[in-house]
Design brief:
There is one protein chain. This protein has 215 residues and is mainly alpha-helical. Helix 6 runs antiparallel to helix 7.
Length: 215
Amino acid sequence: MFLVSVHGTRDSFMGIVYPSEAVARRWDGALQARLRRAPLERFLSGRGIVPAPRGISQDSDDLVRATVLIVEAGLALYFVDRKEGLAFGQRAVVGHVACLVSRALAEQISQADAWRIVALVSTARLLSPWIGLNTAAMASASAARQFQKEVTKGISPLDWRIMKSASDAVSGNGLDAMANASANIAARLNAETPAAEVWAAQALRGSNKSFRSGA
C-alpha cells in the first residue's frame, strides 16, 4: 500500500494506491524470506563473519559460512590436548557431520534443497587444509553420496543432537547452544561407541566453563 500525493496548479490530492495481488505476493514472499534469513545473518555477524551479498547464491553462501564455522568449532574442541592430526577414517566423519549441519540449517531457513551443495562446499573447505583441495573435493562428493544413502534409514541419536544443537546455535536458542554443538561434533569424531557419549558430557562441561569464563 502506498500513500500518494498529487500536486496540481491549484489543488492537491492525496490517495492510496494498492499493489496488484501478484506484486503483493512477491513482496510478502521477499519479507518472509528476509525474516527466515535474519537469525542466520545475526549468527554470522555476531562472530565477525560478513554475511553474503544479495544475489542468487546468498542463502547457500551464508549456509556454507555457518556450517564451516560450527564444524570447525567441533574440530577445535576435539583437538584440544591432542597432538595427532585428523585420521584417515575421520575424513568421512567430517563430511558426514557437515551434511548433518548443512541439512539442519537449510531446513531452518526453508531452503531444504540447498543442503547438498552447501555440504559439498563446506566439506571441501573443512578438509582441504588436511588433504588438499582436489582430494577434499572428491572426499566431499563421496560423503554426500553416502549420507544420502544412510539418511533414508534414519539417523543416530548423536547425529540428531548434532542437527538440533546446530539449529539452536544459529537461532540463539540458549546460552550454551554453540558449546552443545561443539561437544556433539567432537563426540562424533571421537568414536561411535557408548564411550563417546560419556566423553561428550565431559567435553560439554569443560567447554561450558570456558564459555562462561570468557576463555
